[in-house]
Prior knowledge:
By secondary structure, this protein is α+β, with helices and mostly antiparallel strands. It contains 21 helices and nine strands.
Amino acid sequence: MARRAQSALSPSLAHDDRRQDRAPAAQGTPSVTATDQLAEFVTATRLADIPADVIARGRLVLADCIGCMVAGAVVPEVRRLAALHVDRGNAVATVLGTGQRLAADAASFINGTAGTWHDLDEGNLSTRTHAGIQLLPAALAEAEMRGLSGASLLEAVILAYEASARIWRATKARLSVHPHGTYGPLAAAIALAKLRGDNVSAIASAINIAATLGLAASRMTLNDGATVRNIYTGHSGRAGFEALALRDMGFTGEADAIASIMGNIYGSEFDASVATAGLGETWWIRRNYFKRFATGRYAHGALDLVEELANPLKSRLSASAIERIDVETFFWAATLSGQTVRTPFGLRFSLPMAIARRIVHGPVPLTDDGARAFADPHVAALAARIYVVEEKAFTDAYPDRQPTRMTVKFRDGGTESVSAERILGESDYPLPEPVLQAKFVELVDQSWGAGAVGAWRNVARIEEIGDVSRLIAGWHPGSHTK
């Protein structure tokens, strides 16, 4: 039975129903925390220990996030933000899309903010994370500043991705919390600590400090189309640098900060056993997805169906011919049911507006800012006839499947109905690598031009790169990376 989804702030549905009561540690006996176990895993694991398919996935995560950072760096708001950070510290790291040089933490802040601007970065429905873009800006800045190898960078990214994704997966997060900028500071701190060769206790200390440096990240920014949401990810990288600096100056964190912060502030519960189960055997990065639309991930199932209808129906799939569209989907997609938006950015988080834009304007560039559709009364009029509701059976199937059904009713009395069990781009329904390469090239073309294909090829062999700083030196406007 279909039903309207409640507000994204509704307390009625938790991310995960797992619950395991934990006995308190014996008085006076130090307990081994999930932080300790994850720190041990990160410290002990080398690139040679990581399965080949996981390494391949890590390369794709690097490429996808780099493309997103480059594309976002050239938008006016991000350029103005970057200009504020000139002459603040030693200029040792690069804003990828512009070639501007800033202090490492500042470059991380700008690249991270840029990386979520178009909402095209990879993510993971199984862990409810976008771990790559939380940590890669800091890891890149560190590797560039210190002239580290591509193998070291890839190793740190994969391990920090795994550890941080596990932490958020173990968190029964509150529905009002947007995950960007929450687990992100500790994700970045783990990557930085690994790159610096820190030992177990130093990494655990960094996690305990970084866990308290997250933001009051609100999910309502999506409903309101508020672009302040994009700095959440930029903050993650900068806070990672701050966490390690605080640790090295003698500051300390809580003894078990992730249980405290994740289990009581960002969430109502933290299950340490979920965070550590199968370490070194289960790799959650294997379950990540890559996007082909510049919208929130939950919207992609319905947009896939629009694409499926577009070719056979052609001119019949027009706003003037459509009486109404009904979309039945899982809970999280149904939270994007709003038929109006307050800003162009908000189109990314309204299924009716995203569907209407595609039907009225046809395919749009990945970096389209939504301004034309936002101002178009034909888009708004069609969106008002698009209804999105939750289908409980579809919610029950999520996240292993992401079912969506769409029914289009035409003014001439005809109907078309299509459905799908999975969103294209999931690990078990992947986008072909040439499609991911084409996405990368489109995203970086404005900045890197003829160097785009060469940049993709270099990321594909990142382990062979001896010095990341030399590689990045070729990634700037006017360069022609071979």
